[in-house]
Amino acid sequence: MIVKAMFLLIIVVFILVCDRSSLRQAERRTLLVYSLLFLPAAYLGLLFVTELPWPNLDELLRYLFGGLANQFVTFLKGG
């Protein structure tokens, strides 16, 4: 678990160092969007490090939007 946490920390630091110059000049709204896009990566990183049996992102999205997506596909097929 410690090795996985170190690996994840190295990746996050590398990403933030690479984006540092653009994040300094970014507006507040851009930083908010950047942070919101980072949340799924943080969730998956937590699952990677802790090996918790929580649902993966595809399972969460299928649960949230699966019924609506199936209705939409049925509508497009004309059924």
Overall description:
The chain has one domain (2-77). It is mainly α and 79 residues long. Helix 1 (2-25) runs antiparallel to helix 2 (28-50). The protein is flat. It starts with a helix and ends with a helix. The protein has 3 helices and no strands. The mean pLDDT is 93.
Question: What's the arrangement of secondary structure elements?
Answer:
Blueprint lengths: L1 H24 L2 H23 L6 H21 L2
Helix pairs in contact: 1-2
List keywords for this structure.
mainly alpha; 3 helices; 79 residues; single chain
Q: Helix and strand string, N-terminal first?
A: HHH
User: Please, how many helices?
Assistant: 3
Which descriptor suits the 3D outline? Answer: flat
How would you describe the oligomerization state of the chains in this entry?
Answer: single chain
The major pleated sheet works out as: none
Total count of strands: 0
Structural class: mainly alpha
Fraction of residues in helices? Answer: over 70%
Radius of gyration: 18 Å
**Average of per-residue pLDDT values:** 93
- Classify the beta-strand content into a percent band: under 5%
Summarize the structure.
With 79 residues, the protein is an all-alpha fold. The protein has helices at residues 2-25, 28-50, 57-77.
